[in-house]
Amino acid sequence: MRALTTWRWNPVLGEYESGEPRPLRGTGEISAIQAFSDKTMLLLGGTGFVGKVLLAMVLDRFPELKHLVVQVRRKKNLTGEERFYTETLQSPPLKVIVDRIGGESVVRQKVKVVEGDLDEPLCGISEQDIEALKGKVDIVVNLAGVVDFDPPVNESVEPNVYGTQHLLELVNVLSAKLVHVSTSYVAGKKDGRVSEDTAIEGYFPEHEKRQNETFSVAEELKWYERFVEETRATRTTNPKPVRERLREGGLARADYWGWTNTYTYTKSMGEQLIAQTPGVAYAIVRPAIVESSLRFPFPGWNEGFTTSAPLVLMGGEGVKNWPVRKDGPLEIIPVDIVAEGILIVTAAVLCGRNKRVYHLASADQNPIMLPRLVAFLGMNSRYKHKHKKTGSRLANAWKAYVETEVITVDTLQSRRTRLHRGLDVMHAALTLGKTLLGAKRVDPYLKSLRDTRRQIRAQEITLDKFLPFMFHNSFIFETKNIREAARMLTDEDLKRLKWDPETIDWADYWVNVHTKGIERWIRPVFTAQRKKN
Amino acid sequence: MNKAAFYDLDGTLLAGNLVSMHAYYARNDRSPIKSIYQFLKVLLSVPLLFGLDLYSRSLFNVVSFRAYRGMHRDRLIGLADDLFEVTLKPSIFPHAQALIDTTRQLGYRNVLVTGTLDFTIRPIALHFGIEEVICNRLEFKNHIATGRVLPVLLAEHEKARSVREYAARENIDLSKSCAFSDSSADVPMLSEVGFPVATNPTRRLRRVAIQKHWPLLELREGSPSFPSFLQPADAAKAF
Q1: 3-state class of A128 per DSSP?
Q2: What distance in Å separates the CA atoms of residue B193 and residue B174, rounded to the nearest whole number?
Q3: C-alpha distances out from residue A171 to A136, A144, B163, Å
């Protein structure tokens, strides 16, 4: 819907402004259009959430680019190329763009697919392909990696650390420049503003508390190899599953150095490898929590469970108690703005005018505070449950009319204990009822209680995973560098790429774009998965 | 040159009004006690608003929007979908969608021109498939409604002016355009276009329409016969 008015919402002031928006002006120190002209870009991780949007954006906005080489991992019985054309290109964000630019034939002229795998040397790209690409690739953009917060440590170290080693070998062989996408949360357990100027190499979040210790990736990898070996060797003597022990080991190690989870710990190690490798022209891009698209290729596109989607889904299911900081923002950033940011950085790297680190985040200029988001979750639950025709009427009314509440972690723990005690009592009563009234009458209730318990437990686990970002730490990632890079572009560039999270109307975005996007794209996948389990 | 179909909303396409919309927000305040208090305030203001509507639509709007004072914008936006489901969707006139589809098929650009607020309009516009909206906006300070409307308040002559402005900007030929409204307050807007239609007219508008030979249209019941310029065969002549 286009509201025909000259009033524009200023989200920072919380009021409308009148008049035409000021046209974007750049200093023209660098030109993205020129930087991309006749260049070849190698994209790793183009099949992921950010990757697909970036791929679509390059195809749509930079026809000047000579070639786009996309590395795709083989999947079961699909070759990389088959997977790219039958899966990636058919995905909603790419399908729209491919149709707009003239169909698959246009893509085939521009794009070359190479098969590869980050876990293998030279990212698994065949010798033949390497020979063909040598000296021809100008820039490598790496979005590949594993985003799971707490997998078994090997599943995170292999792609995020060894994978980065393989990436560096590849960049070296191809003599290309590198844009590496990491995460803002490599900052670890911290409060307050996070600078882009902090040294990368040797960084660990607890360095202020433990000044006598030093962090080195080489030492860390030695620990890792030893730990994995020992854990696997005790497979028969230790009753706990190896995977679980590897998972816990990774989390404990991350926690020791001050990182929030295995993901941020291994991503930081990847960054450090790049920073300590001499002779690489690189920039590290660190997005915050990447969320549904704001405008491109269409509002609300979302995929996977690495965004705030699990929280929105839980809110939609009627969770009322939210442990969040009353004074803290949630550092979110729409995926299309992230893609634009990556392309701005890529242009800066190609022109040799880049900084080392770029945060892509919003709270620096336009924070969305957590209590506002909690209120939105409640309103979504109201809408969903008020008009629901199935399920218990009483439960639906409770989920619709009881408002969400911001609480502390202590309150959350005591409420959880009370809830579980209540469920225990119910379980005991039903078990007694079973002996008195017979299994036939009571079993359905027992089953329903078991299901509810399982659902509550799953929600608790999800919530705990997000606590570092919502309660334990409150971050604001400084975004000076990306704003500076965007200002250096030409006016013509700014028509294709802009960095403008300061203009996002969060209420409209969260309610009408993000929540609806999650309900449209993520809920069906989530429901199907739950049924399967 | 293009042509457009301008639609009023309340009373024309659905039976809702500003009071029922605000009553919804009052009923759905954050706590039950606040809700009861707010709802009573709305009930008490009904006779005043009824009188004001007979006297001046602009004044009626000013007073009814004052009731939003102190409300957070997040809540107004967050509850808009529910407001639509509860209050507005059931009150859509049975033949409203058919009319909107007809004008679209005949090449008119559909535009809602209404005194209703932007956040309320959104789900309605999406439901009808209308992409362009000229509507009122509340003034906010630090996300809280002040109870005032951003100038200029869209009603009566202002609606006519904004239609003229829109036509000039979008290269629309008003003499080939049409407009639909139920209220005599919209006579200025109806007079701007070549094909005004008194839709579900109030008694006052019916009198004006008969005097001016404007066609009458009933979307509330029965099977409506659309004015001749909306019949496919005659549509060609309108070009």
Answers
A1: helix
A2: 5
A3: 12, 14, 59
| Mean pLDDT, residues B96-116 | 93
| Phi, psi of A66, rounded to the nearest 5 degrees | -70, -60
Higher pLDDT, A166 or B235: A166
| A382 has a chain B CB within 8 A of its CB | yes
Is A427 a residue whose pLDDT tops 90?
yes
Alpha carbon B47 to its chain centroid, in Å, reads 22
Q: What b-and-e string marks burial along A174-197, b requiring 16 or more CB atoms within 10 Å of the CB? A: bebbbbbbbbbbbbbbbeeebebe
A138-156 burial: b if 16+ Cβ within 10 Å, else e: bbbbbbbbbbbbbbbbbbb
Residue range A294-303: average pLDDT? 95
The mean-pLDDT minimum among A429-443, B12-26, B52-66 falls in: B52-66
Q: Which amino acid is at B125?
A: A
**Torsion sign, CA atoms A389, A391, A394, A397:** negative
**Which chain A residues contact residue B139 at CB under 8 A?**
15-16
- Decide if A189 contacts A472 (C-beta within 8 A): yes
Q: How many CB atoms lie within 10 A of CB B50?
A: 11
Give kind and range of the element (H or E) at residue A503: none
Distance CA A476, CA A421 (A): 38
> Mapped to the 3 state alphabet, what secondary structure does A63-118 carry?
CCECEEEEEECCECCECHHHHHHHHHCCCHHHHHHHHHHCCHHHHHHHEEEEECCC
- Give chain A positions within 8 Å (CB) of B28: 382
Assign B232 a pLDDT band (cuts: 50, 70, 90).
low
- Parallel/antiparallel/unpaired status of strands B138-141 and B144-149: antiparallel
* CA angle (A27 as vertex; A26, A30 as ends), nearest 5: 95
For residues B154 and B116, what is the distance between their CA atoms, to the nearest angstrom?
A: 9
Q: Which residues of B touch A376 (CB under 8 A)?
A: 74, 78
CB-based contact B73 A1, cutoff 8 Å = no
The nearest CA of chain A is from the CA of B12 a distance in Å of 20
Contact B78 A3 (CB under 8 A): no
ipTM for the assembly? 0.89
Could you give the CA distance from residue B162 to residue B148 in angstroms, rounded to a whole number? 20
Residue A13 phi, psi (nearest 5)? -80, -25
